[in-house]
């Protein structure tokens, strides 16, 4: 399953990457945001650190904030970012 | 629902003028009885150290969608006649205005409440991030637990 993945703010800096195409390995029609996060975490380094269980980050799928158990549609735009600090 | 066209949501680098925005809301109307507004400013101090400047980043596309969604939520809770939300991005200096929320209604109760609701929701759900320049270097601002609490009280 191909996904467009975007990173913002501190995560963009830590990963040294604003966006990329990710092929979610072995994904079925019920692949979730948690599956994507697990695959990214397996890259190690800053990925493992920032996306570790218990770390505060948010996931948006097609520009709506979702829980990690949200199912990913094919070609979804997924964004991963720190808790927001606007206003 | 706020009627189509009666909701202004803008993300911009330029400063804004509260007076001009309120005048634009009032222009040609006699049904509005109250306009409540909030302006958020960049402070020169945060978490115990001086802030020389800050840069606001956002998620183009999602930002506008998220702001529209929370304004629509406010409009389902209170009878609103018009709403304006302007949020700046880019580099700002202490004292600069960051965000403006203005809400028009027939009566003050709805205008005050909806204005506060929109700000509380914006603080926790609109994808903006602040990075501060301090004497100790640059740092990303951490989200505040108090902001989550402020947003949560509306769903109590």
How would you concisely characterize the structure shown here?
By secondary structure, chain A is of the alpha+beta class.
What brief labels describe this structure?
heterodimer; A: 87 residues; 5-stranded mixed sheet; 3 helices; 5 strands; B: 156 residues; alpha+beta; Aldehyde Oxidoreductase, domain 3; 10 strands
Notes on the protein architecture:
The complex is a heterodimer of chains A (about 90) and B (about 160). With about 90 residues, chain A is of the alpha+beta class. Chain A has one domain (about 1-80): Beta-grasp domain (Ubiquitin-like (UB roll), Roll), CATH 3.10.20.30. In chain A, about 25% of the residues lie in helices and about 25% in strands. Chain A has helices at about 10-15, 35-40, 45-50; strands spanning about 1-5, 20-25, 60, 65, 75-80. Chain A has a 5-stranded mixed β-sheet with strand order 2-1-5-3-4. With about 160 residues, chain B is an alpha+beta fold. Chain B has one domain (about 5-155): Molybdopterin biosynthesis MoaE subunit (Aldehyde Oxidoreductase, domain 3), CATH 3.90.1170. Helix content of chain B is about 35%, strand content about 35%. Chain B has 4 helices and 10 strands. In chain B, the strands form 3 sheets. A 4-stranded mixed β-sheet of chain B has the order 1-6-8-2, sandwiched between helices. In chain B, strands 7-5-9-10 form a 4-stranded antiparallel β-sheet, with no helix packed on it. In chain B, a hairpin with a 2-residue loop joins strand 9 and strand 10. The longest helix of chain B is centred in the last third of the chain and has 18 residues, at about 110-125. The two termini of chain B are about 20 Å apart.
